[in-house]
């Protein structure tokens, strides 16, 4: 199902015509020990590039990239991107971010970290890709969301530091692009799930899956009628790589247009894991967006990209990873 990028080998390691002798790229992935980052690193390593992961392990885990340790093409640096760093690279995938609701709070990573990575891009002439978010649309008044929509964000709410942090990061990226001629790429990522997701960081898919496996009730916040669109991680990684290699700045929505209410999601989790799993209603968080669904026409047209894994196909892949990790955890704690 994976579509080949121009400069990629196929499953059998054959190099498609016309790309022999392709120069190995030096690539930094900030946040590369995290959920999305580690899957991206797998693809870049598979392609034969030289990959440096910069991560402070705030929510990421060394286990996610352990299988590359010892490979001369791979390097892992424990570093907080809020501090400057000197590296010589061709491309920067900037994913470092306190990315889950439980970890938002105040954290300068989105602003200061992004500034440092743009400074690095400027100094060495690297191409810079920012992983922004659908949260820049806030509680959207347009549905589905198109990239030209400016959003509806509360500047002083509980989730503002994430939303506004990413909005500022986009502003900085565009200023460096216009002012210093940096090649930038901006992806606005919609809710993504898959293996290696943090088990307890409070996002809805990981919560429901962990709860069903632990035989706990699924916690639905509010009336459960709010919607989200869930994208499988391999689709996202394909989109990020196409964006980086392509000629368009963006921003591009990268998400799966399949839209589900939280009650529908709970139902899919029940079907996949345990039909008898109970549902428990909890008060919703403040400023929770009512609806979210990407319009991906721009990515389809300009990147030739669209997701190919449905929720019902992707969820079981995540469940087997969660089952293994939860089981290993319970063995460690003697449970
Ligand atoms: P994640 O928490 O698994 O990954 C983030 C990584 O960044 C972690 O490894 C963490 O340790 C690292 N990090 C955090 N602060 C850092 C700092 N100051 N210095 C160095 N490293 C730091 O989250 P993810 O889901 O993989 O998200 C990756 C990116 O994609 C983030 O920028 C996030 O905002 C964006 N995104 C993700 C989703 C999603 O649904 N997963 C949706 C929209 C946007
Ligand atoms: N920076 C960095 N690595 C580099 C180059 C710059 O971390 O290789 C940081 C630098 O410390 C600064 C930020 O990026 O805080 C912005 O750099 P820029 O050169 O754009 O701004 P200036 O230093 O001129 O204010
Ligand atoms: N949510 C839920 N139960 C949970 C966790 C989240 O019903 O255990 C809801 C949450 O209120 C929101 C939606 O699921 O409406 C998506 O939440 P998440 O934090 O995963 O992503 P985001 O709000 O950033 O899109």
Automatic annotation (TrEMBL):
Keyword Transmembrane among UniProt keywords: yes
Enzyme Commission identifier(s): 4.1.1.35
Single Gene Ontology MF annotation: UDP-glucuronate decarboxylase activity
Ribosomal protein found in the keyword field: no
Domain NAD(P)-binding: 29-316
Keyword annotations of the record: Decarboxylase, Golgi apparatus, Lyase, Membrane, NAD, Transmembrane, Transmembrane helix
EC class of the enzyme, as a word: lyase
Pathway note: Nucleotide-sugar biosynthesis; UDP-alpha-D-xylose biosynthesis; UDP-alpha-D-xylose from UDP-alpha-D-glucuronate: step 1/1
Listed GO biological process terms: D-xylose metabolic process; UDP-D-xylose biosynthetic process
Chief place of localization: Golgi
Gene Ontology CC terms: Golgi cisterna membrane
Cofactor(s) listed in the protein's UniProt record: NAD(+)
Compartments where located: Golgi apparatus, Golgi stack membrane
Topology with respect to the bilayer: Single-pass type II membrane protein
Source superkingdom: Eukaryota
Family: Belongs to the NAD(P)-dependent epimerase/dehydratase family. UDP-glucuronic acid decarboxylase subfamily.
Protein function: Catalyzes the NAD-dependent decarboxylation of UDP-glucuronic acid to UDP-xylose. Necessary for the biosynthesis of the core tetrasaccharide in glycosaminoglycan biosynthesis.
Name of protein: UDP-glucuronate decarboxylase
The species this protein was found in: Phaseolus vulgaris (Kidney bean)
